[in-house]
Specification:
It is built from 40 helices and 42 strands. It is of the alpha+beta class. The strands form nine sheets. Strands 28-40-39-38-29-36-37 form a seven-stranded mixed β-sheet, sandwiched between helices. A six-stranded antiparallel β-sheet has the order 20-19-21-27-22-25, with no helix packed on it. Helix 14 runs antiparallel to helix 19 and helix 18 runs antiparallel to helix 19.
């Protein structure tokens, strides 16, 4: 119902009361509430409600008390959260009366406490007070001027909704209150014939009216969006079909409101559906930020959870960056993907969503998000919107979700027109509305920032638990090690600790260890238990897509192994404690694993913390590239205004900025004034300074090493070369290598295998002990029997097994390699697969023009005019023909011919024959003939196809030019007597200089055992001459190849060339072939090759689909690429080998395979669970850190020495540390299941470490 405004004659006879009800959900609740309130005496004059905001507003007599209203609502079964009445001073007064149900509601109490705390802060109160002083609407609403429609909560109040509901409510309120006339709120609707009707609506008094109109209009099937504005009493409806306008008006009138159609316009910028596109069939690529992954088993779990859907095409999960890239069909499946990841026990946040195989329209419009600080009430957003509407009108479009005071984000779309209309004007306008408003450009967190935050949060979680476990480990060490192993048995304090207490044969020291280990198990090791339970719950939950039998042989992760190890040790100790409590006091020690729980947890957390730190440091390549762009720029003033320093976010295309010495351009642009030398090594890897003159392009991220220059910006954020490089590096790091699939298979079965081995180990040792197969002196008499004694081997197996090394073997090396390649100007678009193929190359095929040759500006070095129409006519026609071609040779001919003659020829028609030449028809050049003249220009094959006779002397000249490595072009025209006969009229020799580094690069490739071939569309003589100049044998030169035939030649080489490599070639019987080309003209050949390398792509790094993109045209980058690829995959193989060898050795030793071996002191060799946990931690740590050290220093000669000498010594030290020698049972040592470090390991002579080689740095 509409709520009328009170009149002044009513005075205080009528009161407005606002009640917030937490369980107000549907229209039936409203009926019940109205019935309950109608029983009041006297009944309320008016009752209005809002299901969205969970509020009921009633105007009633002052005779009706608050208690009466509460009693009526509670009797009807409603939970009243808070109630307010308008007072003389206009501040909401809250009743403290609460029902028993409310007092017992924990959730609502917690939400009330959280909300009230947030609003009770003194600084917020002061800000609110200052805001009210400036906001007339708030003063009117809070005062008693004419009464208040509803009393809003202020400081000290609480919300009736949960936090998420409150945010949703604010967004809904903002959506209906902030639609001002003149602004277009862009929706995602699509379809032909979209119209927007603007309505003037009278009779709306509250948000319930707005919701009512929005609901009845929105239910119409052809309506795309409904925007109703309470403040301006208007509505805007976007719908399909102009004929539906009258129906819109009729529906609003039927809802009980008066409406007038103000305007009806067709939406000019409405998106249009493509009839050829099947709805829901579009392909998309989504990137998710994943939280909670710790090992490769987690990667397998996420992959399995997502890939089971039929509409999923490809899934790449990256452990290092904590992200997943999913290619799928149908954008509406986004929520299902996130739900699948979350159901598998991990947190998922959508980072980016991009269409695939869709041509994106080039638009000059910009979409920006502006964060506005200083808004304190719901009147601020419409105030800002109204002000921008008044200033800019339809120059700005507001995108959904609309501005509200909760988020403070204003999303706009506009068409900049510097210097008159830019984002700077919009930001300044917002600041001018009120001094308290502080606008700034908002950037959502990038994938790297999300990963960084996640890594930091994970490290903090682990660090808190590590501090707890370390703190408790100190007294545990004193009690469990010092007093039980080192202090003499006659010591009075030790005897006191060994005395039984409270129950049976339980000594004081065991009670102390129990009390110390319990908080460690519950509050430090909980991270392992919680994640293990999540994994099990995700696998066994109702509706799980994991096949039933697969749940028994593919489950768990490293968290489960850690949880099982600590859980078995803890509860086995409790069982032993209970057994000892049931015995009579004997004065002897009853053994347990309580101290092992503490040290196990501490060492596991140390390993997890160091591993998390190493992973965070591994993926810094993209972050480092992003830091190359400056945060501020010096904007050159116009019309005599001075320069000023502004944020780079406020720049527009066309702005002119000043770049002083030692700084970087904020974005790519053209030099407007001045000249300087630039250091582009950060992008290209080239250390040589590049000279830049006016008109040259400079790139963001490069450093000005000369004087100050001015640059006109021609790109903005997201489109510069640096942004493209960052996107390519990020894309490459997300692509996994085929060898990682091997790791996935191993790790997916690793945990079940370890569990099986641990159970079998325990059963075997227990059986051997109970059957008397092994002597009784192998165990300590007070160790709790064979059951507890045999558990030590099972626990050691659980904690020593480490799939992390297997899972991290490839990702860490590929991440480091991809980042290092970017620093050398090599972009790894193909990711791990490209690295793997490049590491085993057998053959490289080079394109000639523009790859082995410079290809930039070929020159005509020689020419010959043969009898015919004359030099002027021949060169003039040749110029007209070649002007329509973009081939480098054509451009050189145009430049040469235009400089020789100035004759005009009229071209009638022209045809281009790809790979051969051009054929054109000209008007007759003289009055003596009326027949048109046909002319040809192209290669020798083109002339032969048209029957052109080449004289012997000309043939000799052509052969001479070709032997010098020059390309030749021939020009022929039709004879005057017959248009079918052509006469050779001119010949040209074009020289394309070789790249200076071409010969040395080919020589280096030959030296490394790689076969080199060359493809060329040129004639055989020229191609062989070029090949001989750079060191390519003549039988490895394929000439006369058309662009469309290059892919076939690559396939031919793949079929015919044998592979000299057998090991590590993944079973290939053929050679691995790489193609090096320009990335665009050679696209078919690049797509066919196993490894495609696009060279000299410059600023178009995102255009090429090659495996590798070389930013510069320096061929030496290819040798760098191959060396780096080999280094990366040698490291991958080493990591795999180390992880497998570690597990294959450590697990049998932990299971007691060497226990029968006696040492010189009569003890047994075994791996104690505590030291097993340390070995596991060091395994994954050394795997990650050695990768970062090795790959990142691949250019230094000292690496091999460090790898050979340093690493084995580390292993030797670790081996001597973690292998525990059990003492001779004849020697009395109270604590045998956790002995101190062996003296032999500390005192045995060791070979001295070799001297560390001097660094080349």
């Amino acid at each position: 119902m509409a709520l009328p405004s009170p009149t002044s004659t009513q005075g205080r006879a009528s009161i407005t009361t606002t009640v917030f009800i937490s369980n107000l959900h549907c229209p039936s609740c409203i009926v019940s509430i109205q019935g309950a309130l109608s029983a009041l005496h006297p009944p309320p004059e008016v009752v209005s409600h809002s299901i969205v905001s969970h509020e009921v507003i009633l105007r009633h007599s002052a005779q009706v008390s608050v208690d009466a209203i509460l009693d009526a609502l509670e009797l009807a079964g409603f939970e009243v959260h808070s109630i307010f009445q308008d007072s003389e001073i206009g501040i909401g007064v809250e009743s403290e009366r609460r029902s028993p149900e409310w007092q017992n509601s924990l959730e609502q109490a917690v939400n009330r406490w959280r909300h009230s705390r947030g609003h009770a802060r003194e600084d917020d109160m002061q800000k609110r007070k200052r805001h009210v002083e400036q906001c007339a609407l708030c003063r009117i609403e809070e005062g008693d001027v004419g009464g208040s429609v509803k009393v809003r909560q202020e400081s000290g109040s609480s919300a009736a909704l949960t936090e998420k509901e409150e945010i949703k409510r604010e967004e809904d309120v903002g959506e209906v209150e902030m639609k001002g006339d003149g602004f277009v709120f862009v929706d995602d609707g699509a379809g032909d014939g979209l119209w927007r009707a603007t309505l003037a609506i009278s009779g709306m008094t509250c948000a319930s009216c707005v919701a009512s109109i929005s609901r009845v209009v929105g239910e119409l099937g052809w309506v795309r969006s409904v925007d109703v504005n309470l403040l301006t009493a208007s509505g805007s409806v976007v719908f399909e079909g102009k004929h539906h306008a009258a129906e819109v008006v009729e529906v609003v009138e039927d809802a009980g409101f008066e409406v007038t159609l103000q305007s009806l316009v067709e939406v000019a910028k409405a998106p249009v559906k493509k009839s050829a596109t099947v709805p829901g069939a579009e392909r998309w690529k989504a990137t998710y930020s994943i939280e909670g992954m710790t090992c490769s088993s987690c990667v397998g779990n996420v992959t399995d959870a997502v890939k089971g859907y039929t509409w999923i095409e490809h899934v790449d999960v990256n452990l290092v960056s904590n992200s997943a890239t999913v290619t799928f069909t149908g954008k509406d499946h986004l929520a299902e993907i996130q739900e699948a990841i979350e159901d598998s026990g991990y947190g998922a946040t959508l980072d980016t969503i991009l269409p695939i195989d869709q041509q994106q329209e080039v638009a000059q419009e910009r979409s920006m998000a502006i964060r506005i600080e200083g808004m304190f009430c719901h009147h601020c957003p419409p105030r800002i919107i109204a002000a921008l509407n008044e200033i800019y009108g339809d120059k700005i479009e507001c995108e959904k979700p609309p501005l509200n005071e909760k988020t403070g984000l204003l999303r706009i779309k506009y068409l900049p027109s510097p210097p008159d209309f830019t984002i700077r004007h919009i930001v300044d306008s917002i600041s001018a509305i009120d001094a308290i408003f502080k606008p700034s450009i908002y950037h959502p967190p990038t994938l790297e920032e999300r990963a960084h935050d996640m890594h930091a949060r994970e490290r903090r979680r682990i660090l808190f638990r590590l501090v707890l476990s370390f703190t408790i480990a100190i007294p545990t060490f004193i009690l469990g090690i010092v007093y039980m192993s080192l202090v003499p048995a006659s010591n009075r304090q030790r005897r006191y600790l060994m005395e039984p207490m409270w129950a049976g044969n339980i000594p004081r020291i065991q009670w102390a260890l129990f009390f110390l280990s319990t908080p460690v198990y519950l509050f430090a090791a909980d991270t392992f238990h919680v994640r293990a339970l999540k994994e099990l719950r995700a696998m066994w939950r109702p509706g799980s897509r994991t096949p039933f039998f697969q749940r028994f042989y593919r489950f768990g992760s490293m968290n489960m192994l850690m949880s099982l190890g600590t859980t078995i040790a803890y509860f086995a100790s409790i069982v032993e404690l209970i057994r000892a409590g049931l015995k009579k006091s004997t004065g002897s020690l009853s053994d347990s694993y309580f101290d092992s729980v503490v040290f196990l947890t501490m060492f596991l957390l140390i390993g997890r913390f160091l591993e998390a730190y190493s992973k965070a440091k591994t993926g810094d390549a993209v972050t480092s590239l992003g830091k190359l762009r400056p945060d501020e720029a010096i904007l050159v003033g116009v019309s005599g205004t001075g320069d000023r320093k502004i944020s780079v976010d406020l720049l527009e295309i066309g702005d002119v900025v000043r770049v002083p010495h030692g700084t970087s351009p904020p974005f790519d642009g053209l030099i407007a004034a001045g000249s300087a030398k630039f250091d582009e090594s950060s992008l290209t890897g080239e250390a040589r300074l590049v000279n830049k003159e006016p008109g040259d392009t400079v790139f963001s991220g490069t450093i000005n090493k000369g004087g100050a220059i001015t640059v006109q910006i021609n790109t903005v954020s997201g489109t510069s070369m640096l942004d493209q490089i960052i996107n390519v590096v990020r894309e490459g790091q997300a692509r996994r290598a085929p060898v990682e699939r091997v790791a996935d298979v191993i790790t997916s079965h690793f945990v079940p295998f370890v569990v099986l081995v641990a159970i079998v180990t325990w059963v075997i040792w227990l059986s051997l002990g109970l059957t008397g197969t092994i002597p009784d002196d192998w165990r300590d008499k007070d160790s709790g029997g064979w059951e507890l004694w045999s558990l030590r081997f099972a626990i050691a197996v659980f904690v020593v097994a480490c799939p992390c090394g297997i899972g991290l073997a490839a990702p860490t090396a590929l991440f480091v390699g991809g980042g290092l390649a970017a620093k050398h100007g090599i972009l790894v678009k193909g990711g791990g697969e490209a690295f793997q193929e490049a590491s085993s190359l057998d053959c490289i095929v080079f394109d000639k023009t523009g790859t082995l040759t410079q290809g930039g500006d070929p020159e005509v070095t020689d020419y010959e005019i043969i009898d015919g129409q004359g030099e002027g006519v021949a060169l003039g026609m040749a110029t007209k023909l070649e002007e329509s071609s973009t081939h480098p040779i054509a451009k050189s001919l145009v430049a040469f011919c235009a400089s020789k003659v100035n004759s005009e020829s009229t071209l009638i028609s022209i045809d281009e024959i790809p790979g051969k030449g051009l054929k054109g028809v000209f008007k007759p050049t003289s009055e003596t003939t009326t027949a048109p003249i046909t002319a040809l220009i192209g290669n020798e094959t083109f002339m032969v196809d048209h029957g052109v006779v080449i004289p012997a002397s000309t043939s000799t000249t052509l052969n001479k030019w070709k032997s010098e490595g020059k390309s030749v072009a021939l020009f022929a025209i039709s004879s005057t007597t017959s248009s079918a006969d052509f006469i050779l009229s001119a010949t040209f020799a074009i020289s394309d200089p070789l790249r200076p580094e071409a010969a040395s690069t080919i020589s280096s490739l030959h030296a490394s055992g790689i076969d080199v071939w060359m493809l060329s569309g040129d004639n055989e003589t020229t191609a062989r001459a070029v090949g001989a100049s750079v060191g390519i044998p003549s039988d490895h030169v394929i000439a006369g190849v058309l662009p469309s035939q290059k892919a076939e030649k690559i396939k031919y080489l793949q079929r015919t060339l044998p592979s000299p490599r057998k090991f590590g070639s993944r079973g290939k019987a053929r050679a691995t072939v790489a193609m090096v080309g320009d990335g665009i003209n050679d696209a078919p050949a690049l797509a066919t090759a196993d490894v495609s390398i696009a060279i000299g792509s410059g600023s178009d790094v995102a255009v090429s689909s090659a495996s590798f993109v070389l930013i510069t045209s320096d061929l030496r980058s290819i040798t760098t690429l191959i060396r780096l690829s080999k280094k990366v995959f040698r490291r991958v193989k080493f990591n795999f080998g180390w992880a497998l060898v570690y597990n294959l050795i450590a697990m049998p030793v932990a299971a007691g395979a060497l226990f029968a071996v006696r040492t010189g002191g009569g003890g047994h060799v075994r791996l104690d669970p505590v030291w097993a946990s340390l070995a596991m931690a060091m395994s994954s740590l050394l795997d990650a850190r050695s990768t970062s050290f090795s790959v990142s220093n691949f250019t230094y000669r000292t690496l091999s020495t460090v790898s050979v000498f340093l690493f084995p010594n580390i292993l030797q030290i670790l081996t001597n540390t973690i292998i525990t020698v059990s003492p001779n049972p004849s020697q009395t040592l109270p604590n045998t299941r956790f002995p101190a470090l062996p003296t032999t390991a500390l005192t045995s002579p060791q070979a001295p470490l070799p001297p560390f080689p001097a660094s080349n740095q």
